[in-house]
Specification:
There is one protein chain. This protein is flat. It is mainly alpha-helical. The longest helix has about 35 residues. The protein is built from 9 helices and no strands.
């Protein structure tokens, strides 16, 4: 990944929409930043993060509005993908797969964080979503590697 793409990716990780603003896609950037704030506020994500990091997972589960939180991984990861796609440089074949599987499995992690399992008790919606997200990134890169070997 070239330096420009990496810079846009890292700014999008900080706040969705910043990568678009750096790519001079102002309207799209404002939309992503606005969506981030609306979803974050309505899902009580910051409170959930604070409680999760302080070991109060059951309280984090209680304050989280899952109807809103389920939108977050898709918007967040789509903003990252879009910023990288629009940045200068070539996009390798199947580069989108880690993003897609990260968003999908991050959402699945949030869905299963409400179940009463040992993982829920220890991790809650924040950490389980993040763990599933990283598993999706890993799986997407693995599948991309396989497809690129067969494709070329």
């Amino acid at each position: 990944m070239n330096e420009d793409k990496l810079q846009k990716l890292l700014w999008s990780i900080a706040i969705p929409g910043f990568g678009q603003l750096l790519n001079r896609k102002i309207f799209k950037g404002i939309i992503f930043v606005s969506l981030e704030f609306v979803i974050n506020y309505n899902s009580n994500l910051n409170t959930s993060i604070m409680l999760s990091f302080n070991g109060k997972v059951n309280e984090a589960i209680e304050v989280t509005n899952y109807q809103w939180l389920l939108f977050y991984p898709c918007v967040y990861v789509f903003a990252m993908w879009d910023a990288v796609r629009e940045a200068k440089g070539e996009n390798p074949p199947f580069y989108y797969l880690p993003f897609v599987l990260g968003a999908y499995l991050g959402t699945v992690g949030i869905i299963y964080s409400r179940s009463l399992t040992i993982f829920t008790i220890l991790l809650g919606p924040v950490f389980l979503g993040i763990i599933f997200f990283f598993f999706g990134i890993f799986l997407g890169n693995f599948i991309r590697y396989i497809l690129n070997k067969k494709h070329f």
